[in-house]
Amino acid sequence: MKILAALIKKEFLQIIRDPSSIIIAFVLPLISILIYMYGINLDSVSVRIGIKNDDANPEIETLLKSFGHSKYIKSIVYDNENDIEEGIIRSKLKGAVMIPNDFSKKLEREKTAEIIVITDGSETNTANYVQNYSIQIINNWLSTSKYKTLSQKPIVTSDLRVWYNEDLDSHYFILPGSIAVTMTLIGIMLTALVIAREWERGTMEALLSTPVKKIDIILGKYIPYFILGMLSMAFNVFMCCGVFQIPFRGNYLILFFVSSLFLFTSLGIGLIISTKMKNQFLASQVALGIGFLPSLLLSGLMFPINSMPVIFQYLTKVIPAGYFITFIESEFMAGTVWEVVIINSIFLGLLGSLLFIIVYKQTEMRLPE
Predict the structure, then answer these.
(1) Which CATH superfamily is domain 47-152 in?
(2) Backbone dihedral region of 99: left (phi > 0), alpha (psi from -120 to 50 degrees) or beta?
(3) 119 and 95 in contact (C-beta within 8 Å)?
């Protein structure tokens, strides 16, 4: 225990003396969470569209006002169709609504009246938003206008309710999910540089010349960075809940327990990289490729897993960040769901233990030939 305590103390002294570890553990998460909060927004708000009205009926002016009152669409009225076309070409507009001159007359005769909705298909998601919002605004206006008839009343009405994310704010699941991506990068990056740095600076040779055991070296690397990673985790949770007021409906003890299993797994991946790569630059590049990119692209945070090709859907089942994102989003928005907690904890615990064994097997106690 004295040897292990001495190694842990040495590692903490190196962390204090090397500001890069503090930057990775606290400055990097701060920058990351600010980007996720203010730079990434999956909610389409104030999408600019053009409106051209050829119907002189004063009642149609209320339809134009309905577009102006929508928080999702910023409408601009044009008199010239060419100006709308130019605006879409230059990406100043994401769509357009064209009201023909006989629109109100057809409504008065209770005939089918058409409105042309044009969308910019170069951005598929935005095009769908423009189309859906425009149709919804038109239907809402029609249900309250003088053209409303008994035949247009629906037989069944819907009472829409949103669970877990009542405000439909994408940041409520982006920020908790971003913690998993950040913790993956921190856990892998911190430990990926540890042993590689020892080999570069020549301190590994001095360490191997002492009567220290392999398990002491491994635990001496795991424990300090585990503590540093959990402090970073607490900092991330504070930023989400305390600063950005993201609602948290779960249990903090369960959150930090599963987070510790996830961090334990990430540290194992980083140490495996560090035992193989004896160059810090190379180790950092491999850590980014193995840790950051799969966690961001294949974890389900930004892109739905069920929309991926089948081979990638199977690949996501071995990515630890995917399990942690499922847990942490559920813990924040829905509260503690024991089925989610148990399944993800078992996977992370088994994978972390397997990685620990691999690290132990791969750690060399002699100088390379």
Answers:
(1) abc type-2 transporter like domain (3.40.1710.10)
(2) beta
(3) yes
